[in-house]
Amino acid sequence: MRVTSRGFLEVFIQQTRTTDKFCMNAVSSGMRTKCTCHGVSGSCSVRTCWRSLPPLAKVGAALAAEAARAGPLRPRRHTGRHVKPRLRYVTPSPDYCERDPAAGSLGTHGR
């Protein structure tokens, strides 16, 4: 299968939208409704409710787990079946813990 630059760009844009959805879902799935009562002696004559964001650590853990499963971005053929979207990467991230003169990294191992 031959991949053109336009085809790759379309796949890249689609994957960016998928990544945005992952991030929004990680935040919105952890949102909770919190309420408080107002009134004389706790009579709860007026109730105020709001949506609260999940703790940042919870959102970060969900995104880190999804990033650990991420695979390389490849164009795919449309088979007609629905595939659960995953996070994808274009190029693998360098490991800054180990020394890598080619990337210009001295590494952080042993600090």
Automatic annotation (TrEMBL):
Keywords: Developmental protein, Disulfide bond, Extracellular matrix, Glycoprotein, Lipoprotein, Secreted, Wnt signaling pathway
Major localization class: secreted
Coiled-coil annotated spans: none
Domain of life assignment: Eukaryota
Localization: Secreted, Extracellular space, Extracellular matrix
Region Disordered, residue ranges: 91-111
Lipoprotein among keywords: yes
Function recorded in the entry: Ligand for members of the frizzled family of seven transmembrane receptors.
Family per similarity comment: Belongs to the Wnt family.
PANTHER family linked to this entry: PROTEIN WNT-4, WNT RELATED
Identification of the protein by name: Protein Wnt
Organism expressing this protein natively: Plutella xylostella
Biological classification of the source: Eukaryota, Metazoa, Ecdysozoa, Arthropoda, Hexapoda
